[in-house]
Amino acid sequence: MAFSLFAILECVVLIFNAFAVLNPDRFLRKFGLTMDDFNKNTSAGGYQNPGYEMNQNYGNQAPQSALAFKSQATLFLYACRNYGKWPLIGVNLFIIAIELLMG
Fold first, then answer.
1. Closest of 103, 94, 100, 97 to residue 12, by C-alpha
2. InterPro entries in the record, alphabetically (predicted)?
């Protein structure tokens, strides 16, 4: 199989398919990547902005590395599962049709 843009597109679609089918209760809860954990982190201790708090000395924002990564990963997986569902179905149908036509 030749390395082409279509192969890269297939790879990206397969990765998004994997994100879309992750079960939050089975797989993501043990890593703390569910929306319940995200809501718990954002409501505790005045933590409003995911991953950032105001640095009083310099007036800029400094990242809180552990919470920032978990918050961003949680929001990314949530967005993949919920907002990307219908476009992902369309792209999957397109790839299936191309594979059937081209062999």
1. 94
2. Yos1
